[in-house]
């Protein structure tokens, strides 16, 4: 059965497409290592006509200022695997050479290299990746480099209408800036392993193949999310290096920085991340609450006595508005945490205590 954090998702409702991966036919080809193809570099500010958008009432940076501040911290990532060479973006998160990107950018890679914003290339090692959040942590040798890491903002403070900027390498065009706004918050998108990622940030800043793993920035140049998917208007193209063919539609989605922070801390410590798991399939109830559509045999919910058809109304005394709210609540917890659920069943309410388990490695396993 589907675990608890898989609620109505953007990937299911809209059909999301990963942004990383090898670029197919187009006007510009990627420059392979040692190749002779000329890559056309964009102007230093690719979207300067919208510079006035990247401001806040508190005196945010213009697009030009933001680009000059943040672009040296953004890199291009090349991942070589048995199926070919995929490219994506990433950014420095620490002065010791640690780089954040998407898990789907480096999936299956046998070797990794990083092209720096100022030129030059270095081999990278995979510290760890988490398919449940689509986040990976890489590391390069920082010797001789002056690294200014980007700062992770508190994504819970983002508001619809806030200015956004994305810096990355769409279609191999290095150091490209696009701007927009936060279009929506609290979206749920599908992770590479079939689970869901809650609280994704939606933006209309142009995102294209090659932007995967790059930063979505606020008007101060802080990271509010890691660009991961776009709505293609068609079928879900999946998360493989050869499948990231979705282009900009004005509907892009980024893994929220608060999730990135939690996952990176775990990857840095152990090379992997763990997530809490309830072991249910959920959807929106009629009225308010999260309706349980299925319960995994032997899972935490089943052991606590939850049943298909139950409606979760509150967790630890906090009201649950819908399935996305329950997903976000569970996402912020840890395996082993005890929750008290207020549940409606057959017209009456009851209290159920649940001990959360550890999410399986893939949806098929849960």
Structural features:
single chain, 366 residues, mainly beta, Thrombin, subunit H, Pdz3 Domain, globular
What does this structure look like?
- By secondary structure, the protein is mainly β.
- The protein contains six helices and 21 strands.
- The strands form four sheets. The protein has a six-stranded antiparallel barrel with strand order 8-9-10-13-12-11. Strands 2-3-4-7-6-5 form a six-stranded antiparallel beta barrel. Strands 15, 16, 17, 18, 19 and 20 form a six-stranded antiparallel β-sheet that branches.
Question: What's a quick, concise take on this entry?
Answer:
This protein is mainly beta and 366 residues long. It has helices at 10-13, 63-70, 103-106, 257-270, 300-304, 323-331, and strands at residues 16-18, 74-81, 84-92, 98-101, 111-115, 121-130, 135-140, 163-168, 176-190, 196-203, 215-217, 223-231, 252-256, 276-277, 280-284, 290-295, 311-315, 318-319, 338-345, 348-355, 357-358.
